[in-house]
Fold this sequence. Notes:
With 470 residues, the protein is an alpha/beta fold. The chain has helices spanning 4-9, 12-20, 54-63, 73-81, 121-127, 152-171, 192-199, 241-252, 266-276, 290-302, 325-348, 365-368, 374-396, 412-415, 419-427, 437-448; strands spanning 42-47, 67-70, 87-88, 104-110, 134-144, 177-183, 210-213, 232-236, 256-261, 279-282, 305-310, 352-361, 400-406, 459-462.
Amino acid sequence: MPDLYQQFTTSFVGRQLAPRLGLPQPPILERYRPGQRTVEGAVLVGAAPGGRLVPQLAKVLKDAEAEVWTAEGELREAAGEAGLSPKIFSVNGDGSSAAGDQRFKALVFDATGISDAESLKALHAFFHPVARKLRPSGRVIVLGTPPEDLDGAARVAQRALEGFVRSTGKEFGKGSTSNLVYVGQGAEDQIESTLRFFLSPKSAFVSGQVTRIGKGGAVPAVDWEHPLKGKVALVTGASRGIGEAIAETLARDGAHVVGLDIEPLADDLNRVMERIGGSSLTFDVTEDDAPQKLVAQLKAEHGGVDVVVHNAGITRDKRLANMKPETWDQVIAVNLIAPERITAELLKQDALHRGGRIVGVSSIAGIAGNNGQTNYATSKAGVIGFVDALEDEIAAAGATINAVAPGFIETQMTAAIPIGIREAGRRLSSLGQGGQPVDVAETIAWFASAGSGGVNGNVVRVCGQGLIGA
Length: 470
Ligand code: NAP
């Protein structure tokens, strides 16, 4: 749903006026429609010499029925082995292309072969001729090796990829996104769910992010239309806003959703759960016995749980000099202590199934800090610490833990912000607008997917590359 300013700049009058007045024209972003293919449009694939991901990349693109193009002979062979016959995109000496006006929906580059600063020029060689050939809501994906797994010049060069991706995210425009995925050695077979997410309109508001994929055990066969079929997902704070969108999206992906919210919101919660065929639980996550009550219910009614999304959150903004201790305590209790206690109880009672997924909801405020939000920012930075602290223990239990950090998302929470600050929050991002609750929900659905076993310990900002917190 475009905001008022976008409605103006995309109207007949606005389209004429905005460029003359030098006003920004935030694009309408494409979002996922059920049944849609992962990527609709041509995908150009390239690789630095020695890249190790091309065979896997070709396999994913074939399974996703993508229209694949490549510039290189060597890649053609690897693609051929995966059963793909890519179209050829050749660049003439003067930078022009025999493919003429061909435009691409996605540019995917395997940079794992980049081993020193000199060889970073492979990025320029691949992206320069196509820098103006990306279609609206296009995708740039660079694949690398986690720098911490390497030494010396290769480590330096792989770390350098972040700057490239964050810049293309700001430069290419027209609603495009640009992301870097570091794939650990031996985790090549884990890339499909992540590639599909970043290629698709599901990642409409995720840009400039760096994700790490590790070994996640055997990859199950995934029904990509319903990757959560047969799973039970708990979503706290599910009656409205981002929580409601998470519940809807996980249900769309096949999960039975157990929505939880406080008693005064029971009617709203029941309405949402009825709509998506889920079930409701009403209590306050900060009650002393909330974790025990919750786990007992999940075990009795569902035999445990597969996906847990700690979404319930509150703000109680005041400058620190004016903040009462109880205001501090309330925010830390809901946003941080409740997720910690509930997760501890789930693990203690062995109620999180193997292949389970825990997702925290942090915030850009937890990364950048915010005036008047010392309590909130502390709690949300704590959510990042919660992911760091638990990632090894959770992986050992055959599960994953990750967090999203939403930036400016259009909800009741942000509608209450004064208009000047609200407009700045919207426009100060590479995409020039606020995100929608569904953008956060889609990112959580990617973490939750049965195919995301290798995605562990990540904090992904859903912020349209917001400059606040950059
Ligand atoms: P929201 O509309 O206020 O929804 C949060 C839900 O959690 C509400 O239904 C809320 O009920 C419920 N809740 C609060 N305390 C609870 C408790 N003790 N036990 C059970 N449920 C409780 O907020 P939202 O904008 O959708 O935000 C959802 C999450 O995203 C939060 O964690 C928030 O911090 C985070 N986030 C949002 C944004 C944004 O731009 N909107 C940005 C960054 C992060 P009541 O509030 O009525 O008590």
